[in-house]
Design goal:
The chain is mostly helical. It has four helices and four strands; from the N terminus they run αααββαββ. Strand 3 and strand 4 form a beta hairpin.
C-alpha cells in the first residue's frame, strides 16, 4: 500500500513539474531579486504548513468516519433480528449475521416459491413487498 501511495505522489509531482514547464516564463525567473526569492520561499513554507494542517484535519475526519462506519456496521451485523440490504433494483446485496446463521442452519427464511431464485423484490397485490 505504501508503494501505491509513493507511485501516486510521484505521478502527481511529475504532472505538476510538466505543468510548470509548460506554463513557466523563463525570463520571469531570471528577473527575481534576492528579496523576491526570499518572499517566495516564505510563501511556499506557509503554504506547506497549511497543506500539512489540512492533511491532519482530513486524517482526523477519516478516523471519525471509520468509527461511525464501524459503529453502524456493528449495529447492523449483531442486531438480534435478521436484516438484509437491498439494491435499488431490489436484489439482496447484504445479510446480517442472524440471517447468515439461519441460512447456515438450513432454516427457511421466507415462504417463497422455488422458482424465485433471483432474489428480486416483487410487489404483491396488497402493495407490500415480499422476497422472490
Amino acid at each position: 500500500m505504501d508503494t501505491k501511495n509513493n507511485q501516486k505522489e510521484f505521478e502527481l509531482r511529475r504532472l505538476a513539474e510538466k505543468t510548470l514547464e509548460e506554463t513557466a516564463d523563463n525570463d520571469y525567473h531570471s528577473e527575481k531579486t534576492p528579496e523576491d526569492i526570499a518572499s517566495l520561499i516564505h510563501e511556499l513554507e506557509v503554504h506547506q504548513i497549511e497543506l500539512e494542517m489540512q492533511n491532519e484535519e482530513l486524517g482526523r475526519i477519516q478516523g471519525e468516519l471509520e468509527k461511525t462506519r464501524d459503529k453502524y456496521s456493528h449495529l447492523y451485523d449483531f442486531a438480534p433480528v435478521g436484516y438484509f440490504t437491498l439494491s435499488e433494483k431490489g436484489s439482496i446485496v447484504g445479510l446480517n449475521i442472524i440471517i447468515r446463521w439461519m441460512r447456515f442452519q438450513g432454516l427457511k427464511l421466507f415462504m417463497i416459491p422455488e422458482a424465485c431464485v433471483n432474489k428480486n423484490l416483487m410487489k404483491d397485490t396488497f402493495g407490500t413487498c415480499k422476497l422472490c
